[in-house]
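stage 2 :: seqdesign
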């Protein structure tokens, strides 16, 4: 797996800060991402959705009530999905205060009153400081947001994160020819950006609109049960650079099969030192974790 990551320019094992350093600060908020960046996580992971008026924001759940005070601010609309709100409405919510109540040990006064983050603000965070973390961006509920891939790409292009110039003089260079897998068209691969989704149509859309950006297909237990591991690999090899399985699917034989096809494996969501070590031994190339500070220690990256 290490060579495959190297070929793609991705650190191995990659430490991907799941919704930021979300064990220490409210998930998907500025403090969580700033902490992850300053700790030295390789990537900031973010779930993207679109407001009613077309703003791309960072938020995990379809509904707002778990991680905001919507029940106080708009009680009559508390069950509605994020897509039904304008950005101006969402900005009135406190997306940090819930964390202090749920995790009193980690509470901080400064977490009260945090605003929902936009993709642009997340890029600002990734670009400031000295650590230059990458962005690992997921299209959430992608079937509900037609065209969101194009919207995301436009922002990233405007911010200079996508540059489709060919990297190699021979664009047909076989990346994985030593492994005997299919010829891959290698464009400029700025490995600082990775797109991820559970939705294969979303991955396909990214592949056709921004082929130079790495793509990882996420695999839940349900998806694996429905299609089977081998079939999933066969289907994703053409459009993806990696597979992102839930941790307990990442058994050595499965990881091996993925590597044989020239794809990397990033497992989610891995929060205990025990799991971190086991998965490393299973050969995974990186983990999504709420605890990047711990992963850096366990993987001896500090
Ligand atoms: O993106 C990897 C992992 O985050 C997928 O699960 O529900 O936390 O977005 P979820
Ligand atoms: Ca995610």
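stage 2 :: out
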């Amino acid at each position: 797996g290490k060579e495959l990551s190297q070929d793609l320019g991705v650190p191995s094992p990659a430490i991907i800060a799941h919704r930021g350093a979300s064990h220490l600060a409210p998930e998907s908020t500025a403090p969580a991402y700033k902490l992850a960046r300053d700790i030295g996580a390789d990537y900031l992971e973010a779930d993207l959705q679109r407001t009613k008026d077309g703003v791309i924001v960072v938020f995990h759940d379809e509904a707002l009530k778990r991680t905001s005070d919507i029940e106080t601010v708009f009680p009559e609309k508390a069950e509605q999905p994020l897509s039904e709100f304008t950005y101006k409405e969402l900005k009135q919510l406190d997306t940090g205060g819930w964390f202090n109540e749920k995790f009193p040990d980690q509470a901080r006064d400064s977490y009260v009153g945090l605003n929902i983050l936009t993709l642009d603000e997340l890029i600002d965070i990734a670009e400031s400081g000295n650590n230059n973390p990458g962005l690992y961006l997921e299209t959430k509920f992608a079937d509900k947001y037609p065209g969101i891939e194009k919207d995301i790409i436009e922002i990233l292009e405007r911010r200079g994160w996508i540059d489709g110039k060919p990297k190699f003089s021979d664009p047909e260079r076989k990346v994985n020819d030593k492994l005997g897998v299919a010829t891959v068209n290698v464009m400029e691969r700025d490995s600082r950006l990775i797109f991820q989704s559970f939705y294969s149509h979303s991955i396909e859309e990214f592949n056709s609109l921004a082929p130079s950006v790495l793509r990882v297909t996420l695999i839940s237990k349900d998806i694996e049960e429905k299609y089977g591991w081998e079939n999933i690999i066969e289907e994703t090899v053409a459009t993806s650079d990696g597979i992102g399985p839930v941790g307990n699917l990442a058994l050595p034989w499965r990881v091996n099969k993925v590597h044989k096809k020239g794809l990397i494996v990033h497992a989610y969501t891995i929060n205990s030192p025990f799991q971190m070590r086991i998965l490393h031994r299973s050969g995974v190339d990186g983990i999504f974790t709420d605890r990047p500070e711990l992963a850096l220690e366990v993987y001896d990256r500090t």
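stage 3 :: structure notes
- Confidence is low (pLDDT under 50) at residues 167-185.
- The radius of gyration is 19 Å.
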